[in-house]
Amino acid sequence: MMARLITLQEWDEKNFSRPHSRRTLYKWAREGLIQPRPMIVGKHYQVHPDARYVSNRAQIDRLKTANRMINDSADALVDTEIDPLALEIFAHGCTTTETDVH
């Protein structure tokens, strides 16, 4: 069951001690600085309650790549073997050692 989405303002209150302006929150949403990305419902952004602010551009790029790989259709993935460990590394920027690889 999917968690109930909340507004950007509710998310901001939950995650920061000082409130940000609506303009800043909408900019963060547009630029992908909140992950998973908020969605527009009607005229307003809604976000997963556990979303987080990501300020590191490299981490944002890894998350976008992982999300694209996960969201590709099953037909596109038939000929492609995607290692779950690789998806985890893309999503979180973890490093691995030779002993971790199976």
From TrEMBL:
Transmembrane segments: none
Keywords recorded for this protein, A-Z: DNA recombination, DNA-binding
Excisionase-like domain: residues covered: 6-57
GO MF: DNA binding
Gene Ontology BP term (one): DNA recombination
Protein name (database record): Excisionase-like domain-containing protein
